[in-house]
Design brief:
The structure holds two protein chains of two kinds. Chain A is α+β, with helices and mostly antiparallel strands. Chain A has helices at about 20-30, 85-90, 100-115, 120-125, 135-145, 150-155, and strands at about 1-5, 10-15, 45-50, 55, 70. Helices cover about 35% and strands about 15% of the residues of chain A. Chain B is an alpha+beta fold. Classes of the chains: A alpha+beta, B alpha+beta.
Chain lengths: ~160, ~270
């Protein structure tokens, strides 16, 4: 039996040890915003925030998250009330098919929280572990750049 | 794919963990950033995973006579951002910038990386460069005796790495770290770390089944070193394999270029 808090809601579930956190979120909790791409930690689509740190949900078992606070893309904002980074993605056309977007957003949030991101180079390096098969990287970099600076100064981060 | 089924234990102490490992063909789970992909690929199917991350007191960076003692469960992100690491071992700080991506650095641990022993990973090479002493639940192993082959270490099946001890570098030691990878955060095609003081240490990763020192090139390095000649000697001292990512010749070329750059930077930094 594990207890986790996901986007502020507490859950208790019986899980098999081999259940990956990504599959736990999607299949047990119905939170399908977290996407599963490569299942080997390479593509970044399943990135979620675990106890304040971005992690690959395909490289973590649900049992390891016992007691943890998890943020997923569903916790960022709603369709009516997008979070500022989501708004920036919309404004800068930073998504095409949308498959990589949840991972890009959660990675972006952790990068914005942890690094000054003073240059585009830093943003690119920070995103280098997230693959976009539409290859729309330029717009994703622009979207993140557009909120750097305002992110902490204006309390854009709701968490 | 999905990982095969296994039993899972998360002991609260090292004693319990060692007892759980004995005779079980179990694997230790720390950050899981190398182990879980191998499970997902079904390259491994251990009957038992012993998760050591619930054991308290293995996540720290402390002074050790001017060097550092680092708990085995210290995460890469903690090493990357530690002011103590940056002050005492700037070469380790510089290398951490090349270790994987943020989401991996948030989970991966120094102990896990050292025990996994990927020949192209930065931390095993840095441990060799900095002459680490690896403290386990049984003994202390000099890093030079730790690696026995690709992904193979001197650790017994019920032995757990607990601490990485890095002796202080002599004052005025110069350092350099140069890596070439296809993409930021990927494993190195080749990387070279050097320290330069009374003697030089040159360590290459990605060019052998374990990280390796280059004694012949090191011996050529004197205080009036011809850095280009040392770099050529380094190139001639390695016998890398060709693979999908790079030919052996290309890796040898990288060893020469990266050694030259690392030594040049180290020489400029040396007092």
């Amino acid at each position: 039996m594990i207890k986790v808090t996901v986007n502020g809601t507490a859950y208790e579930r019986e899980v098999e040890p081999r259940l990956l956190l990504a599959d736990f979120l999607r299949h047990e909790l119905g939170l399908t915003g977290t996407h599963v791409g490569c299942e080997q930690g390479v593509c970044g689509a399943c990135t979620v925030i675990l106890n304040g740190d971005s992690v690959r949900a395909c490289l973590c078992f649900a049992v390891q998250a016992d007691g943890a606070e998890i943020e997923t893309v569903e916790g960022l904002g709603t369709v009516e009330n997008l979070n500022p980074l989501q708004q920036a993605f919309q404004k800068h056309h930073a998504l095409q098919c949308g498959f990589c977007t949840p991972g890009m957003l959660m990675t972006g949030v952790d990068l914005l929280r942890k690094y000054p991101l003073a240059t585009d180079g830093e943003i690119r390096e920070g995103l280098s572990g997230n693959l976009c098969r539409c290859t729309g990287y330029e717009h994703i970099v622009q979207a993140i750049r557009s909120v750097v600076g305002d992110w902490n100064k204006h309390g854009m981060d709701s968490k | 794919m999905k990982p095969p089924a296994f039993e899972y234990l998360a002991p609260a102490s090292l004693d319990e963990a060692v007892a759980a490992l004995a005779g079980q063909d179990a694997k230790i789970l720390a950050g899981g950033q190398s182990l879980v992909p191998m499970l997902n690929f079904r390259l491994l199917a251990p009957p038992l995973l012993v998760d050591i991350t619930r054991i308290p007191g293995l996540d720290y960076i402390e002074d050790w006579d001017g060097g550092l003692r680092i708990g085995a469960l210290t995460r890469h992100y903690t090493l990357e951002t530690s002011p103590l690491v940056k002050a005492r071992f700037p070469v380790l700080h510089a290398a951490m910038a090349h270790v994987a991506h943020l989401a991996i650095r948030n989970r991966g641990t120094i102990g896990g990386s050292l025990c996994h022993g990927d020949p192209a990973a930065e931390l095993p090479g840095l441990a060799l460069l900095l002459d680490a002493h690896l403290k386990t639940t049984k003994r202390t192993i000099p890093v030079a005796e730790f690696y026995q082959g690709a992904l193979a270490t001197a650790l017994g099946e019920d032995e757990i790495l607990t601490e990485i001890m890095l002796p202080a570098l002599p004052t005025g030691t110069g350092w350099g770290f140069e890596e070439f990878a296809r993409r930021a955060g990927d494993f190195a095609l080749t990387a070279v770390g050097v320290t330069v003081g009374a003697e030089a240490r040159i360590v290459v990763i990605g060019a052998h089944e374990t990280p390796m020192r280059l004694p012949a090139a090191e011996a050529l390095f004197t205080d009036r070193a011809d850095i280009a000649a040392v770099a050529e000697a380094a190139r001639d001292e390695v016998t890398p394999n060709s693979d999908l990512h790079a030919s052996a010749d290309y890796r040898r070329h990288l060893v020469e270029v990266l050694t030259r750059r690392a030594l040049t930077a180290a020489w400029e930094r040396a007092a």
